[in-house]
């Protein structure tokens, strides 16, 4: 039950405090992003400071991880224990760090692809699907899937249909593996490979991954910026088993 001495806000008033419309506030309440508001005698919603704190926390969190993940996480932060909430926030930092490592590894993979594409390639350097899979630390099934998607083009022996990977196919496989490690889907990788085949090499792919690194840095800084609002949200929550 609300404290009668605590300041209360109408839907419009609390929305204006954080830059949301009245409909956005109602939608966020319906989704559990903020606690349910009490109703006055006239039936109108009455919001308190805790609702304002939750809205500010959501806005800061959405800037760091995106609106949809923030909407999914906020009910946990509101309803669960501080221990569980702190664990979920730690997971966010770890996820950003992990993605940053994958993107950096992808950039290193592209550098290798660029270097090796300029080397003289002899018949003795042709690789089997198993050798390529081992070299790139991927499954042979992944290479077959990439081939079905038209991303890589190994040669086929006419008599047995056995795959063999020459210079072009190995370079393609390296680029695909690097971009997949960086979190990219099949369609953007296909576009990048088209440019690769047009002698643009991996410059565009490297730019995309560099942009992703910059975005990860922005998100990390935004998550740090959200720390104050998240602290306010969790400050009065129970630390133990009760929500």
UniProtKB/TrEMBL annotation:
Looking up PROSITE patterns in the UniProt record yields: HTH_MERR_2
Per UniProt, the keywords (alphabetical) are: DNA-binding, Repressor, Transcription, Transcription regulation
* Leader peptide range in chain numbering: none
SMART domains, per the entry: HTH_MERR (SM00422)
* Xref: InterPro entries: DNA-bd_dom_put_sf, MerR-type_HTH_dom, MerR_fam
**What is the protein's name according to its record?**
MerR family transcriptional regulator
What domain of life is recorded for the organism?
Answer: Bacteria
């Amino acid at each position: 039950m609300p404290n009668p001495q605590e300041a209360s806000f109408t839907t419009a008033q609390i929305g204006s405090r954080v830059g949301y419309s009245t409909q956005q506030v109602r939608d966020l309440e319906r989704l559990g992003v903020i606690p349910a508001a009490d109703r006055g005698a006239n039936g109108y919603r009455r919001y308190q400071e805790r609702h304002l704190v939750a809205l500010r926390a959501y806005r800061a969190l959405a800037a760091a991880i995106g609106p949809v993940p923030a909407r999914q996480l906020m009910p946990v932060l509101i309803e669960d224990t501080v221990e569980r909430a702190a664990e979920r926030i730690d997971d966010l930092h770890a996820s950003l760090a992990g993605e940053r490592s994958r993107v950096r590894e992808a950039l290193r993979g592209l550098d290798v692809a660029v270097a090796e594409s300029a080397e003289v390639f002899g018949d003795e350097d042709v690789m089997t699907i198993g050798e390529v899979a081992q070299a790139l630390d991927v499954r042979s099934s992944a290479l077959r899937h990439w081939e079905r998607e038209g991303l890589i083009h190994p040669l086929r022996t006419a008599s047995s249909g056995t795959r063999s990977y020459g210079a072009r196919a190995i370079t393609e496989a390296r680029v695909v593996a690097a971009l997949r490690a960086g979190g990219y889907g099949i369609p953007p990788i296909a576009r990048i490979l088209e440019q690769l085949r047009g002698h643009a090499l991996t410059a565009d792919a490297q730019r995309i991954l560099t942009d992703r690194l910059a975005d990860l840095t922005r998100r990390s800084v935004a998550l740090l910026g959200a720390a104050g609002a998240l602290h306010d949200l969790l400050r009065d929550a129970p630390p133990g088993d009760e929500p």
